[in-house]
Design goal:
Length: 377
């Protein structure tokens, strides 16, 4: 694994616990974790359960005792590490966004496909039981033809203008702000649930242009210094979309929504009913079916914890809810099984490229002030 902070902890937890709850066709051995700060990576190795540590990712990818490279370093490091790992013949699991640009993402996909390794991208929210149930309901046609897809991803961790200038606010490192970080998840869920995008038009805003340079940072927290630096990414980006199936879409991502901690939602309205999901209540899915008897019509809330629901039989009795970290375990389970058995896996680098294409189409639409066809990007 390359990276050991917020996402490093989430990924490590998945590798450590997946074999406890799922029947794998191969054992998972956590061989080595890598980071530039020797004290930090050594501490992470001991705390997270890794057998060893490295401070040079090139040395890591060339080790004979490693088959899979997990890349969750900052976004500007993804391309170089992934290409190196693929060249070394390693399977690769990469955090999102896949790259800083669509051109880089396409290069990474091409390299992975040519090498024949298994590649995956961490769109983990696909693997929540409630999202999987929504997919099942849609596939079965229970809410009919899709008319509307509404998505939000609202956070408030940057609403305070005195919050330090974390790396996610630096375009050279992160690529973009709320758009690439938050809208990326919304875009992937939309593609997973209802299909590909046809065209988009967007609007973007940076509310705070200067922030204190951090003296130290960890995850989504930081300690400010007395120096100030420039914010070079968006604080909020919204866009309209038309899907290839004719559905209309609205998307909104911001880090300036007080009271919203990790409020990722989708609402899907069809000719026969509707679905609603809220990540802050991730064990629930709201459904509405227009063919219910008139005196019983209305949204019903399904607690997605029954043994018949996706993945839940591997966890606890009904009503014993799961959390954010379980989506990573489900993803890792499916990915490892695909490596061992040679089966297809998604989301992979292709999905990363498709997401990046929509992200860049929105950016182009903002520059032009007009609709942009996604396939033209």
């Amino acid at each position: 694994m390359v990276g050991y902070k917020f996402m490093g902890k989430a990924h490590s937890h998945a590798y450590k616990d997946v074999g406890m709850f799922f029947e794998l066709d191969a054992d998972v051995s956590m061989q080595a974790i890598c980071g530039r700060d020797i004290d930090g990576v050594q501490a992470a190795a001991e705390k997270f359960g890794w057998s060893s540590y490295e401070t040079d990712w090139q040395r890591l990818i060339n080790r004979d005792d490693i088959d899979l490279i997990d890349v969750n370093a900052p976004s500007n490091a993804h391309k170089e590490i992934v290409l190196g790992a693929v060249k070394a013949g390693k399977h690769v699991f990469c955090e999102k966004p896949l790259a800083l640009t669509l051109a880089d993402a396409r290069e990474m996909l091409q390299a992975a496909e040519q090498s024949g390794v298994k590649h995956a991208i961490c769109f983990n929210y696909r693997f929540l039981p409630a999202v999987q149930l929504a997919k099942q309901i849609l596939t079965e046609g229970q809410i009919g033809d899709i008319h509307h897809y509404r998505a939000t991803y609202l956070q408030d961790w940057l609403a305070d203008p005195d919050f330090p200038l974390a790396w996610r606010l630096n375009k050279e490192v992160a690529g973009s702000g709320s758009h690439g970080d938050l809208n990326a998840h919304c875009i992937d869920l939309a593609r997973f649930l209802i299909g590909d995008f046809e065209r988009v038009v967007g609007h973007s805003k940076t509310f705070v242009h200067k922030r204190p340079i951090p003296a130290s940072s960890q995850g989504l927290t930081a300690v400010a210094s007395d120096e100030m630096g420039d914010v070079t990414v968006d604080d909020a980006t919204s866009f309209l979309a038309e899907f290839k199936n004719g559905a209309m879409g609205t998307f909104e991502a911001t880090r300036f929504a007080y009271g919203r901690k990790n409020y990722q939602t989708f609402e899907i309205y069809g000719s026969k009913g509707a679905l609603r999901f809220n990540l802050e209540r991730l064990n629930e899915l709201e459904v509405y079916f227009k063919d219910d008897p008139p005196h019983l019509q209305g949204y019903r809330t399904i607690l997605v914890t029954e043994g018949v629901h996706p993945y839940t039989a591997n966890w606890w009795p009904p009503g014993h809810t799961i959390g954010y970290e379980h989506a990573f375990i489900h993803l890792v389970y499916e990915y490892i099984q695909s490596i061992v058995n040679g089966s297809d896996f998604a989301p992979n680098f292709y999905d990363g490229v498709q997401c990046q294409q929509v992200l860049e189409a929105v950016d182009q639409s903002i520059e032009k002030g007009a609709w942009v066809l996604v396939e033209d990007v």
